[in-house]
Amino acid sequence: MPxxxxxxxxxxxxxxxxxxxxxxxxxxxxxxxxxKHFPVRGFRSDKVVHAVDDxxxxxxxxxxxxxxxxxxxxxxxxxxxxAQLMPTTAGQILLDGEDATARGRKSFRRYVKRVQMIxxxxxxxxxxxxxxxxxxxxSIRIHRGNLKGAEMEAALDELLDRVHLTPVDRYVDKYPxxxxxxxxxxxxxxxxxxxxxxxxxADEPISMLDVSIRLGILNLLRDLxxxxxxxxxxxxxxIASARYFADKTLVMxxxxxxESGDSESVTQDPxxxxxxxxxxxxxxxxxxEARARGARGEAPSLVTPPPGxxxxxxxxxxxxxxRTELPPLMDVGEGRKAACWGYSDRPDRxxxxxVLDAYGERPTVAxxxxxxxxxxxxx
Length: 379
Description:
Layout (H helix, E strand, L loop, with lengths): L6 H6 L16 E11 L8 E12 L4 E5 L6 H8 L7 E6 L2 E2 L5 H10 E4 L3 H4 L6 H13 L4 H14 L18 H13 L5 E5 L7 H18 L2 E6 L2 H7 L2 E6 L2 E7 H6 L4 H8 L39 H5 L5 E4 L2 E3 L16 H5 L5 H14 L1
Parallel strand pairs: 3-8, 3-9, 6-7, 7-8
Antiparallel strand pairs: 1-2, 1-4, 4-5, 9-10, 10-12, 11-12
Helix pairs in contact: 5-6, 5-7
């Protein structure tokens, strides 16, 4: 019987130093102009939902890329496309530089052995009628062969030890409802690690957990990145956690990437107006008045997205150029890009400034009532 792969074996097959810069290594997983349109059912069958449009993304061994944006921006759709749980409408998925589109059961199994997904809700992703032992042994047998006896017990011990669920005897025979949310998510991570993957796609892995245990899960993923050299896509709506955890951050709005760069720069010096608003919406106990300012309006319809920049209906700096032509991702600094005409050299470009200052403070209830009384008196 072949010896099951170990963490060391998995790490050694990953090319390059985990701390190499992107320029020195080849991406493990890459999406090129990835697009996903969902047909709209009904009498207008020609319409589609533009969930993801022309997204380029690269994941490197030993590095974390965060995908940040509000609900409905297309983040989770990208994770499912990369996991090949649904087909792309257009574009390519490359694994080690080669086309990785799964065209059958065998090719899909080869793919998922290297690319694993961690879902948002750990209780929903685990079968409530089965124990931790069942979930992990099933994954081990799928990816490592039909281990039995002492070999299977050793593999179980190894997985639970990797996710810091020790002593193993305390957890291995429990059901999901007998575990806390953080423990359930650690079991889900252990199940993904049974394949010794090169890539983990973490779809909001901490959003369903108590605030007190979120940091522990992020630290666990960081430890796996450092020890095993795994490439991680971290999907979140919390840009603050992206700064803490990710090496690089991509900001999405209405199905498109609008800004990218190293996490520290993106969060400390946002270039795109939407990124400024996203950061400004984070709670800050030292500046609660800033919460009174923010984007007006709603996110656009993805069935009939606005022409030009998709953020233009909510952007205080938008010009006719923004309303008619789609901005490409432009260089705005070393290793940084933003899809905003304000950084172009065109004469009709918009003049940018602070979005929060441009919006001004929202009127208070008392001020609104006084203004209404004044209008009534004038009549």
